[in-house]
Amino acid sequence: MTASSALHTDRYELTMLDAALRDGTAQRRCVFEVFGRRLPGARRFGVVAGTGRLLTLLRDFRFGDDELRFLRDEKIVDADTLDYLAGYRFTGNLTGYREGELYFPGSPILTVEGTFAEAVVLETLVLSVLNHDSAIASAAARMSLAAGDRPLAEMGSRRAGEDSAIAAARAAYIAGFSATSNLAAGRRWGIPTMGTAAHAWTLLHDSEEDAFRSQIEALGTDTTLLVDTFDIRTGVETAVRVAGTGLGGVRIDSGDLPTVAADVRAQLDSLGATGTRITVTSDLDEFAIAALAASPVDSYGVGTSVVTGSGSPTAGMVFKLVARQDDAGAWIGVAKASTDKASRGGRKAAFRTREDGVATSELVVVSDGYEELDDAAAHPDARALQVPLVVRGDIDAAAEGPAGVAAARAHHLRVREELPVRALALSRSDPALPTVFTEAAEVAGQV
Amino acid sequence: MTASSALHTDRYELTMLDAALRDGTAQRRCVFEVFGRRLPGARRFGVVAGTGRLLTLLRDFRFGDDELRFLRDEKIVDADTLDYLAGYRFTGNLTGYREGELYFPGSPILTVEGTFAEAVVLETLVLSVLNHDSAIASAAARMSLAAGDRPLAEMGSRRAGEDSAIAAARAAYIAGFSATSNLAAGRRWGIPTMGTAAHAWTLLHDSEEDAFRSQIEALGTDTTLLVDTFDIRTGVETAVRVAGTGLGGVRIDSGDLPTVAADVRAQLDSLGATGTRITVTSDLDEFAIAALAASPVDSYGVGTSVVTGSGSPTAGMVFKLVARQDDAGAWIGVAKASTDKASRGGRKAAFRTREDGVATSELVVVSDGYEELDDAAAHPDARALQVPLVVRGDIDAAAEGPAGVAAARAHHLRVREELPVRALALSRSDPALPTVFTEAAEVAGQV
């Protein structure tokens, strides 16, 4: 299970490496930055996810015999570059937002520092992971906020590529979901799994009653019965008749949910099943969940909308060279000037300023280092957003695996408490916080 | 690289299996069908993709020690079910549309026949693969049609999960793209790879001229230079000065492309570089490509829009039980009756009827078998759409691997020639062909 991740790479990264090894620029130290020019879907905040996965994939970013043979046979790089890749280890630094952290346009989500050679080849992998997972988490956080205290399960694996489905379950959990249907996500990331039966279960049997009876025998009275295969009213009646008033729950997967949920609640209560929970699962998104806030629903299952980022399937982050050394070792901030895609040169330090515990801005200091940041110091309640993830090639193992997921979820749930109330609205709008760029005075003109 | 695919599975499939093994229904023979209730994005046709990947994943659908330990430790199934899963092999039949085939609402894209036990556990994996890959292929085919004879490269890996990116490159290639930037897709599926340099290449160097000179030394005059890092006009002038009029190509990644392409073409011609090609790559989708049809563009690179299905990131196909045997071995067509998600029971055979070589309908015969189909026989030019993919557990190896991809691409390019002209429009509309359901007379009332 330690397949190489090294070919999750766009060809141009290796052709640039090839040319840079020839002309000597490969060893120039560089700073690349990952940021989003805007938030996906004109939302009010984004959520960083994927960091822990990325760190593990970075461990496996090795060019073995199979990878090298392909690059040689296809004449993608020359012999010197093959030699370089055979010994490739990332020995630089990754500094970034904690997984689960909120982000805004221009937030320096990840900073990659190393030689041009070792850093440029990571572009595609870094962006694939962060763009996908952050898109899911950014959508999921809104659903989680809309659901309030009601449990929310992710069950969209069938509407996502089979591996992305696992990553989506992970991102949704970090952003506040409480469980997933995906067993691989349960095993890999320690996420609670859920699920009982599909319509096929009822159709397999000679009657709905047979199906319910069998499910209860196997899973106990506390299970959840899917009651809408034929007629919902009959389904509920049969469910309670078979299970008794101690039935754990019923699931509704079709119809106009506010109406149906109210009818089912009334029917359950009239049958004495006052403790039986109602789960709804039909094409929900954050807006449908919000519309059900006043309905007698006990939990939600969300599929398509969460795994596809609810209209924004990618976070649209980019990976840009923002600073490099020249031949004399001096740092130079660099940026492209294209009219519609300009970027901002220089290394950045980021802080969330707060007043009375409520976030007020994303403060980004263009600076050579992370000390002497007068602007941040002027905000006594500012919180530094970046942490070291990889130091001289040494990966922070605490951010990986199930422990990393649990930490990211806890961090997310904590920091979203800082959001101002206007950030919680679901409508399209400007970001909830302004991103304020300042130059650290004492290093102005440098990076 | 033969990791098990068995946990790419929603928990409820295993809880249903568990209960079915207890009550004896696990051994009932069943027919499940994969179909889409509608086409993604109100398009005029869909493209089936993922079949070859699915067959390989089916080979690897095995419950090994790691998978079984997880299921036991988490108490997801009981000991008898663990025993069943330890010996799991799919021994049934998969019959389906060829990869690359077109589909319409209700097309029986894949039919899975086997015992309930062996078939139900495949639901999530089957849908994950077909929904993702078909969404990409359905979007990609429109881009390919809009591009006409101009080459079209997929370069969206950074905007998709790292594994889905490989599948997306594959699906786009099947639907008419000519190359990908993704090296893993090149290695795994034999797709041509492309790419030369990013903006970071120019920014790494002390001047744009240095960067161009170095790239040409490494890659030759026939390379493509990215000319929009600073000022495009200066970039083009520098490119031709450095490379000479034999420069292979320039790439433009920003700006209003019709205007910029015309200006760059005029400039190149005035400099004598009349053979230098122009590649454009900035946020293209099928509409932007169509809008550039009259512009002097030689090739396109498409990223985000193709890997995210251009607004429809999942094909929305479902996996439904449509027929099963009863205890006496008689077949019964089954379907759920939910008002908004009703399905149609019975096994289906599918044909594309044609007149003068132009497709006229998707004919779906609800039938027990694939012979004696009077309705199809009434259309002498009808083409049978289903082929055996797995026969009694034996997988059609020809549909797998790079050879399967090449065959799927050839099939797609051939069958889309049958489409009526109205199918080629990009606007939202009804499907280009009606789906006509009929019951095979001699088997009416049966499945």
Automatic annotation (TrEMBL), chains A, B:
<comment type="function">
    <text>Catalyzes the first step in the biosynthesis of NAD from nicotinic acid, the ATP-dependent synthesis of beta-nicotinate D-ribonucleotide from nicotinate and 5-phospho-D-ribose 1-phosphate.</text>
</comment>
<keyword id="KW-0597">Phosphoprotein</keyword>
<dbReference type="InterPro" id="IPR006405">
    <property type="entry name" value="Nic_PRibTrfase_pncB"/>
</dbReference>
<dbReference type="InterPro" id="IPR007229">
    <property type="entry name" value="Nic_PRibTrfase-Fam"/>
</dbReference>
<keyword id="KW-0808">Transferase</keyword>
<protein>
    <recommendedName>
        <fullName>Nicotinate phosphoribosyltransferase</fullName>
        <ecNumber>6.3.4.21</ecNumber>
    </recommendedName>
</protein>
<dbReference type="GO" id="GO:0004516">
    <property type="term" value="F:nicotinate phosphoribosyltransferase activity"/>
</dbReference>
<dbReference type="InterPro" id="IPR013785">
    <property type="entry name" value="Aldolase_TIM"/>
</dbReference>
<comment type="similarity">
    <text>Belongs to the NAPRTase family.</text>
</comment>
<dbReference type="GO" id="GO:0005829">
    <property type="term" value="C:cytosol"/>
</dbReference>
<feature type="domain" description="Nicotinate phosphoribosyltransferase N-terminal">
    <location>
        <begin position="7"/>
        <end position="131"/>
    </location>
</feature>
<keyword id="KW-0328">Glycosyltransferase</keyword>
<dbReference type="InterPro" id="IPR036068">
    <property type="entry name" value="Nicotinate_pribotase-like_C"/>
</dbReference>
<dbReference type="Pfam" id="PF17767">
    <property type="entry name" value="NAPRTase_N"/>
</dbReference>
<keyword id="KW-0436">Ligase</keyword>
<dbReference type="GO" id="GO:0016757">
    <property type="term" value="F:glycosyltransferase activity"/>
</dbReference>
<dbReference type="GO" id="GO:0034355">
    <property type="term" value="P:NAD+ biosynthetic process via the salvage pathway"/>
</dbReference>
<dbReference type="InterPro" id="IPR040727">
    <property type="entry name" value="NAPRTase_N"/>
</dbReference>
<comment type="pathway">
    <text>Cofactor biosynthesis; NAD(+) biosynthesis; nicotinate D-ribonucleotide from nicotinate: step 1/1.</text>
</comment>
<keyword id="KW-0662">Pyridine nucleotide biosynthesis</keyword>
